[in-house]
Amino acid sequence: MNIQINSLATDFNSIPIIDISPLVEKFDDANIHRDAGVCEVVTQLDKACREAGLFYLKGHGIPDSVLKEARDVIHEFFHMPLEEKIKIKLSMTTGCRGYQEVEENFTKGLPDVQEAIDFYKEFAYGMYGDMGKLLEGPNLWPSNPQNFEEVLKQYIDHCTVLSRKIMRGIALALGGSVDEFEGHIASNPFWVMRLIGYPMVSKQNGHAHTQSIGCGAHTDYGLLTLLNQDESISALEVMNKSGEWISVPPIHGTSICIIGDMLKILSNGLYEAALHRVINVSQQYRVSAVYFYEPNYDATIEPLDICVQKTGGIKKLGPAIYGEHLVSKVRNTFRF
Ligand SMILES: N=C(N)NCCCC[C@H](N)C(=O)O
Ligand SMILES: O=C(O)CCC(=O)C(=O)O
Ligand SMILES: [Fe+2]
């Protein structure tokens, strides 16, 4: 499958900030589509998904203490000596779960200046046949810091609940029913979590890196991404339609939401999968906790009829099987 990076519908120079608290409070309300506050959120989501594909979320309901505690334990982990970290080393035989050293992860053929740990939702062996094999196995949780697993599992639960609520808002924004993405699309949503550490540039002295590309330009693979980034370090960038990189600095009390490849297909290209990258030129070590909310692993993803009607009556994208898309990306990311 070839996912094109189309130019964005309208250009943008600043990133939208959406207060989604009405949606978070009323996501389960039978009359949600008639609620004035929710309708306003839905309008803003629609605009942000069309124009930017990446936006800030305010009023998302995940306590600041949960976000901060997650970043704290991630800092603690990456701060440990390498021999401790490689106890949970990622390989072909760990279901591609675990720790990767700096420059073991590639984007478009170039090594990323980051270390990371990958987690995937666990599933039964054989459940997805050949398509699932590469990612089979239990997650590798470090035993240090001691509270790591508990803190991050709690964080994942928060993200899953929030993502489902946002997807309900996006379903309405696309003109569908509130549970448009339940059923065969995302009734059993897959998830991925990537915890990333970006070394300081000063640590790269002696290397050829004058600019440290922490993560090369890419789009995310699934429905939407929730990003929890270190405060006070500006490193993330998103591309607008003029091809300019727009900075996405941390804003206290917000999280970042990024539209992924599968939502682009479902919307028949109405919504953009944001092209983004990370360059940490700060003098600080930066961490992020990146949670990816994905379709059912074995879902066949194609444009929704309501979206096809809105976009000229022809399916422009897909179909794609989500699990196949994910596995092809993972294969290109590592040199085992
Ligand atoms: N699960 C997601 N979206 N991870 C994004 C990781 C960054 C890009 C990856 N190295 C690649 O080459 O795709
Ligand atoms: O660390 C970040 O801010 C973003 C990382 C990212 O885009 C990814 O891992 O997909
Ligand atoms: Fe990303």
TrEMBL record:
**Oxidoreductase keyword on record:** yes
- On the tree of life, the source organism's domain of life is Eukaryota
Q: Which UniProt keywords apply?
A: Dioxygenase, Iron, Metal-binding, Oxidoreductase
Cross-referenced InterPro entries: DIOX_N, IPNS-like_FE2OG_OXY, IPNS-like_sf, Iron_ascorbate_oxido_reductase, Oxoglu/Fe-dep_dioxygenase_dom
| Domain Fe2OG dioxygenase intervals | 189-295
GO MF, one annotated term: metal ion binding
PROSITE patterns in the record: FE2OG_OXY
Signal peptide per UniProt: none
The record's similarity note reads: Belongs to the iron/ascorbate-dependent oxidoreductase family.
Q: What is this protein called?
A: Probable 2-oxoglutarate-dependent dioxygenase At3g50210
- The source organism is Spinacia oleracea (Spinach)
Encoding gene (name): LOC110786998
